[in-house]
Amino acid sequence: MIEIAQELPQPSEGQRRLFLKAGCPFCTKLVVFLAAAGIQEKVKPIYDCPPVREYVAAVNGGKCSFPAMETEEGKVVMLETSDIIDFLSKEYDVAQEPLWASRYFDEGMFVVFSALFGYLIKQEGGYANAKKWFAEHAQMVPHPCPPEGAAEVL
């Protein structure tokens, strides 16, 4: 696992590595929060790609999901986007209520995405079939992930 961690971009002093998946509404929610809070420099954003997935899974008992944030090398907080936001809010003394841009995304686009994904799940006969639908239609949404083996910083 240490070898994998060393292959990935390293954070600068005072930063944590933040693993993001392009097009993920949960990752977008987190990035909007970071920008609204003015703390985006506190993280080192890294694309989803095979080495990133391998590392995130290795430090989380085989589970890989996004976003994922390292609290220290070899330890990743990733279970819920809201947990990461709460962690960062507390760490950097950020009051979430005044962040109108973050609320704008949460109460608008995030709600729309959730409704559309719920509709797709219902139409396709369950979550597994909805994931299959996305895989079959992946060409509709270009994925800017770097080539296999790369772990580029956004």
Largest sheet: 4 strands, mixed
User: H/E series, N to C?
Assistant: HEHEHEEHHHH
Helix/strand-derived category reads: alpha+beta
User: Low-confidence parts, pLDDT < 50 over ≥5 residues?
Assistant: none
Find the CATH superfamily of the domain at 2-98.
Answer: Glutaredoxin
What Rg, in angstroms, do the CA atoms define? Answer: 16 Å
Strand content: 5-15%
Helix content: 40-55%
Mean pLDDT score, rounded? 86
| Count of strand segments | 4
In order across it, which strands form the biggest sheet? 2-1-3-4
Distance between the termini: 23 Å
Tell me about this structure.
Helix 2 runs antiparallel to helix 5 (100-107). Strand 3 and strand 4 (75-77) form a beta hairpin. This protein has helices at 2-7, 25-37, 50-58, 81-91, 100-107, 109-124, 127-136, and strands at 16-20, 43-47, 68-72, 75-77. The two termini are 23 Å apart. The protein has a domain at 2-98: Glutaredoxin (3-Layer(aba) Sandwich). The radius of gyration is 16 Å and the shape is globular. Helices cover 47% and strands 12% of the residues. The model has no long low-confidence stretch (mean pLDDT 86). The chain is α+β, with helices and mostly antiparallel strands and 154 residues long.
